[in-house]
Specification:
It contains 14 helices and 6 strands. It is α/β, with parallel strands linked by helices. Strand 4 and strand 5 form a beta hairpin. The chain starts with 18 loop residues before the first helix and ends with a helix.
């Protein structure tokens, strides 16, 4: 009779070390009426919605727990990619595998320097990622993609609080309450660049741009990761989607770009200067961050609470 642990492969990081694995092990109910797959999906989504600030003790799973709970959850390659993000690289996620799409895929990625854009973090397997439009299912198996890679969550929260306070002060008091350096950087006494007929309206235009910059800063503080989406539209048009994500998997902003453009964002990601890119500035707000969306309403409430 073979040892229960004899078929357990070595893993890096060790089994039970990644935060979502700790959550699964600590909340697993062996007597649940759910199937193991159902219970895993429910617990992983609960882990995501608990937010990155959760505190989880390290655990040393038994061979049985690894074999029954962790190992069936995802492949070792998925686990490796999810936990190997030292440079904050995106993943390149292909979700369309219709007949004839392989040729279009090869044509799309042929000019892309993947090592500069996503390194080896390419998710391209019809058995694993044939999600169609439901691309956010990737977080059911790789929730680590929604964790900050280079800062503690408390530093993110502090940045969010300060950004919301600045936007709230501006909303209450206009330019007089806006950060002076921001106003100085945007003010143009001879008119506003890109608005040649706006010299007589520069006050209103300036107010608009200050407001947009402060709102952009708030959105920036909620970004924890980004991905490149190669979906059906990308294969039809040649334009992939760059998607900036918050810790709950919500889209903050997204933009359709050529397949080579993500390389540009990868170069700007590390120091946060991606917010100066056209991909970010011209990106479409995710539905949750628009007025009336769950995150948009939350930000409005935070602004009200932040007002003196």
């Amino acid at each position: 009779m073979s040892d229960a642990g004899s078929s357990i492969p070595q893993a890096d990081p060790p089994w039970g070390n990644p935060a979502p694995e700790r959550y699964l092990l600590q909340h697993w109910d062996p007597d649940s009426s759910e199937t193991p797959d159902q219970q895993r999906k429910r617990l992983v989504r609960a882990f995501i919605h608990a937010g990155p600030g959760r505190s989880l003790q390290k655990v040393s799973p038994t061979a049985t727990q690894i074999a029954k709970i962790l190992q069936p959850w995802r492949t070792l390659e998925q686990r490796k990619i999810a936990n190997d993000n030292s440079m904050g690289r995106a993943v390149w996620l292909r979700t369309c595998y219709t007949e004839g799409s392989e040729i279009r895929h090869e044509e799309l990625v042929e000019p892309v320097q993947m090592d500069m854009t996503v390194d080896d973090r390419v998710l391209n397997d019809p058995l694993l990622y044939n999600y169609g439009p439901a691309w956010q299912r990737v977080f059911d198996v790789m929730p680590e993609l929604l964790q900050p890679y280079h800062e503690t969550w408390s530093s993110y929260e502090d940045g969010q609080r300060k950004a919301v306070e600045a936007l709230s002060a501006y909303a209450a008091g206009g330019l007089a309450r806006a950060p002076p350096q921001l106003v100085e950087n945007l003010y143009c006494p001879n008119g506003v660049p890109g608005f040649p007929g706006a010299i007589g309206m520069r006050g209103q235009v300036l107010e608009y741009h200050v407001g947009q910059a402060l709102q952009s800063n708030v959105h920036h503080t909620y970004v924890v990761s980004w991905l490149v989406l190669e979906d059906e539209e990308a294969l039809e048009t040649g334009n992939v989607a760059i998607i900036f994500l918050d810790a709950l998997g919500n889209i903050i902003r997204s933009k359709r770009v050529t397949a080579q453009d993500p390389e540009h964002i990868a170069g700007l990601w590390g120091d946060g200067s991606f917010v100066e890119s056209a991909e970010w500035e011209n990106g479409e707000l995710g539905s949750g961050y628009q007025t009336g969306g769950s995150r948009g309403n939350l930000l409005l409430e935070s602004m009200r609470n932040a007002r003196p």
